[in-house]
Specification:
Blueprint lengths: L1 H18 L14 H8 L10 E7 L7 E7 H24 L7
Antiparallel strand pairs: 1-2
């Protein structure tokens, strides 16, 4: 048990050193220009937690307008997990109510 604790502690201490070689962006990635993002991403791997990825999202109510959403890999992962949690809670709530939506 003590060995497992020591290994877990050493991994926890080593993780910031691996991710710590590159600091997170100093402002929100969506506020950065494409040139700034390219310069920031130049020396890091695409799988790095702070690598910035941009996606285009459709704007509701517009047929042509797209919104550029840029986040770090870490932020995309958190956003995806949060969305999955919300969907799970909604589905469980619907199941608890016996499938009746209240209308």
């Amino acid at each position: 048990m003590r060995f497992v604790s020591i290994v877990a502690l050493s991994i926890a201490l080593a993780a910031p050193a691996v991710a710590g070689d590159k600091l997170p962006p100093d402002r929100m990635p969506s506020e950065m220009t494409p040139t700034e993002i390219k310069a920031y991403n130049a020396d890091i791997d695409k799988s790095h937690p702070y690598y910035i990825t941009c996606r285009k999202a459709e704007v509701i109510g517009s047929l042509a307008r797209k919104l550029r959403v840029c986040r770090t890999n870490e932020q995309w992962k958190e956003s995806s997990a949060r969305g999955n949690d919300n969907a799970r809670e909604t589905l469980e709530g619907f199941a608890r109510s016996g499938g009746v939506n209240g209308n």
